[in-house]
Amino acid sequence: xxxxxxxxxxxxxxEQEILALAISSEEDDARxxxxxxxxxxxxxxxxxxxxxxxxxxxxxxxxxxIELHRARxxxxxxxxxxxxxxxxxxxxxxxxxxxLSLDRIRxxxxxxxxxxxxxxxAAAGRTSDAATRKLLGDLAAAEAGHERKANALEGKHxxxxxxxxxxxxxxxxxxxTYVQPGLAGLMxxxxxxxAPIFAVAFATQDTWTTFLVGLAASVGAGISMGFTExxxxxxxxxxxxxxxxxxxxxxxxxxxxGLGHALPYLITDFWxxxxxxxxxxxxxLWAIAWIxxxxxxxxxxxxxxxxxxxxxxxxxxxxxIGSG
Length: 324
Prior knowledge:
The chain is mostly helical and 324 residues long. The chain contains 10 helices and 2 strands; from the N terminus they run βααβαααααααα. The chain has 2 domains: 8-158, Ferritin, core subunit, four-helix bundle (Ferritin); 165-323, no CATH class. The N and C termini lie far apart (73 Å).
């Protein structure tokens, strides 16, 4: 059987094709930066302005490359893009930007420039043709200049106050979309399943039955909490973000909270499983109190009273009911 590839090796590209590849890459990067800017404009106008300027800078380099191509090879630019070349650096699909935080978008932009600069530098070192080496070296210098330009633009558009404001807003959005619904789910899964799981455990002293009840309660609660969170608020007016993201965060953490003290009952010895489950409950409740204190600014003593004491009462109720 004969295997073929539809990608050309970089070493097999002509100088015209290398120039055409650089032109298409600059065009793609400009579009990516504009996409970043459009995504950030409403909430982070300072950062959006940076990406608008970076896109304009990419357009300037693209025009210079086109002029160079016109002077050397004429008007017709070969159709060659990064996906046509084996080993060429790839870019993240632009639709994934909706799932990235502000800091991650900034990091993605920095990585874009570094990747391009490294690639052109390495490519220049692999060729023996003087003209091609000069062309690739010029492209590497241009990409390195882009990175310095990005830093300069950040200083222009983001003073300390603006950056702090945008970072605070990004943190708040993360809390509203992921931490808050996830914490609510973890609390519900950890606390609400305590009574049924330990009631069944002490009533039957059958570890497998207890595990099945805990599994059913955890999964059922997770599905219920996930759908409830997603359906309760579309996020448009409240600014809490995507209902799907919040629903998954709440549902998954609810299930995890319940499974934490259900899984120990896979141990066949009842008392070993129960002691392990109680230890897991202790860790879960203190973890919830810590998360509330760290992300929700709840005083630690209040979080402890709400979660640990409340959880202990629910646990005690389950044990008393099961023992009776």
